[in-house]
Amino acid sequence: MALEVLDLVGIFVFGITGALVGVRKKLDVFGIQVLAMVTGLGGGFIRDVLIGALPPAALVDWRYLVVPVVAGLLTFFLHPGIERLERLVNIFDAAGLALFCVTGARKALDFGLPPLSAALVGTISGIGGGVIRDVLSGRVPVVLRSEIYATPAFLGAGIVVVADEAHLDAPWVALAAAVVCFVIRLLAIRRGWNAPLPRMP
Amino acid sequence: MALEVLDLVGIFVFGITGALVGVRKKLDVFGIQVLAMVTGLGGGFIRDVLIGALPPAALVDWRYLVVPVVAGLLTFFLHPGIERLERLVNIFDAAGLALFCVTGARKALDFGLPPLSAALVGTISGIGGGVIRDVLSGRVPVVLRSEIYATPAFLGAGIVVVADEAHLDAPWVALAAAVVCFVIRLLAIRRGWNAPLPRMP
Amino acid sequence: MALEVLDLVGIFVFGITGALVGVRKKLDVFGIQVLAMVTGLGGGFIRDVLIGALPPAALVDWRYLVVPVVAGLLTFFLHPGIERLERLVNIFDAAGLALFCVTGARKALDFGLPPLSAALVGTISGIGGGVIRDVLSGRVPVVLRSEIYATPAFLGAGIVVVADEAHLDAPWVALAAAVVCFVIRLLAIRRGWNAPLPRMP
Predict the structure, then answer these.
(1) From the centroid of its chain, how far is CA C77?
(2) How many CB atoms are located within 10 Å of the residue A189 CB?
(3) Could you give the CA distance from residue B41 to residue A11 in angstroms, rounded to a whole number?
(4) Distance CA C13, CA A5 (A)
(5) What is its membrane topology (chains A, B, C) (predicted)?
(6) Rounded to whole angstroms, how far apart are CA atoms B189 and B184?
(7) Shortest CA gap C60–chain A (Å)
(8) A77: distance to nearest CA of chain C, Å?
(9) Which residues of chain B does A73 touch, with a Cβ-Cβ cutoff of 8 Å?
(10) Are A65 and B197 a contacting pair at CB < 8 A?
């Protein structure tokens, strides 16, 4: 139940990022709608395929399909000026990352995956939608650009997994894990945190 | 049975588009063959993975593998001059889109998916092969370029779904749905139909 | 057992190629780690999804996750000067291709797929990791560049399949098939073998 709500909110915010990137690329209303859907649903599709939960949740529950459409249409009509688009993409993307890494890890645990795998599935579902969005629209995937991205997702997923090992699975654990991921990701953007680069001999 | 035939024809025409893009990119015979196979089989793979029909049809029936190879070889030897390539890609791509959106929706219904999901699965299998072809060969995916593309696929898939709700599933329904998708797609290309762009404040 | 060892070695060498491409693209330590993981695990994920072996092997056995991390960290700290990177990518990539086409075909046979399909699954798992690596890092996928790539993978997978038909499945068959693929791929690079290009009328 709580899982579903977080999942739907994650789809909504990721859908917004897809639509915003579409606006930025000057796509038409249908291209924007497609980007909103693949970005919103992509991570969950990958997650459900990997854990064998087929057909994916988004294909057996119509709310999963309506949410990214609404996100895309709202963005199409209400998007801000071009100069603020990229900043908004980053903020909503951080929110989607935080929500999906948590719901992904939780669902993987529910399907009986071992702890480390559940943390990885959480990370993959967090970064999946953004990777698909960026590859389709010809951007370098954000996860590969020089910023802290996969790491906070792994951290958020890890908190869910460790809490589960300790038999803590109250809703506030999921929320706390999402907040940790979200805050670290935003701080990394704002402060320009960088991870070490390879030395060049 | 009728479904299989439509599926194989769809694989054939999508295989041709993959090979034509490969010719245009001046790939060698093997690169062209690979593009023909991923374009022909990609949409069906995604469809079968999403509805949980594993292994995918193309992996349990050898005809599914022979068809794109033949499409690729025919195209390699018989392709036209470079200046007519893009137009042919568009026509065959429209045919593949039309066939796959119909067979995808039909198969999803047969696997018990609800109507809206079946329409989405049909749309995804229609656009999937072209997306993979374009991403691999470094083109902006046709589905995102400013044209009517995902919409006729959704329409074709939708006709199949609505007809099914009305207990109409004669072969001519599938054919009619494919024709609707194909004609709208071609008209959109010929007449240069465009969907609304986001306003820029 | 032998299959698992070959699989883990394949993940290791593909992980190295992902990390080397990341070093070349001047990604930071986390971006490099992500590329190492998707390159090492991508082909096996695709294979297991296609044959319906869900969740994929890499998600139920923690060694599959540790191996690409180690490959990525080793490469991050010990990589050579920039001028030798591309050559190393090619060699390790050939090794990964050889190992995965063999283990992919073998696993597909074990899951009851028919011979031709098993050879195709082997080829796909051989080329899958490299395709994901190249698409994510904005390179033209090696499989589409003008070189012998998918063909030796199909040959290696084919040897495994034919030997299985002849009831030969000793470990040396798998090794011989991998060596054939590896040697042909390396010769094609060294000697600059090219496949025929389409004639331009």
Answers:
(1) 23
(2) 17
(3) 28
(4) 41
(5) Multi-pass membrane protein
(6) 9
(7) 7
(8) 31
(9) none
(10) no
A196 in any annotated domain:
no
Closest among B125, B127, B104, B105 to B116, alpha carbons compared:
B105
Determine, for residues B81 and C201 on separate chains, whether the beta-carbon distance falls below 8 Å: yes
Task: Please report the pLDDT score of residue C154 as a whole number.
Answer: 93
Q: What is the DSSP letter of C143?
A: G
Predicted confidence (pLDDT) per residue in C41-92, tens digit: 999 999 998 888 888 888 878 888 899 999 999 999 988 876 788 888 899 9
- Dihedral of the alpha carbons of B162, B167, B172, B175, in degrees to the nearest 10: 30
Domains in chain B: how many in total? 1
What distance in Å separates the CA atoms of residue A30 and residue B185, rounded to the nearest whole number?
14
User: Is C196 inside any structural domain?
Assistant: no
* A108-145 pLDDT per residue, tens: 999 998 898 899 899 999 999 999 998 888 787 888 77
For residue C157, CA distances in Å to C44, C106, C125, C184 come to 14, 8, 10, 13
Nearest Cα residue to C71 out of C45, C46, C104, C41: C41
Domain boundaries, position A67? 2-191
Degrees, nearest 5: CA angle B24-B28-B34: 85
Residue B170 is assigned to a structural domain of this protein: yes
Report yes or no on C64 lying in a domain: yes
Residues C150, C127: contact at Cβ < 8 Å?
A: yes
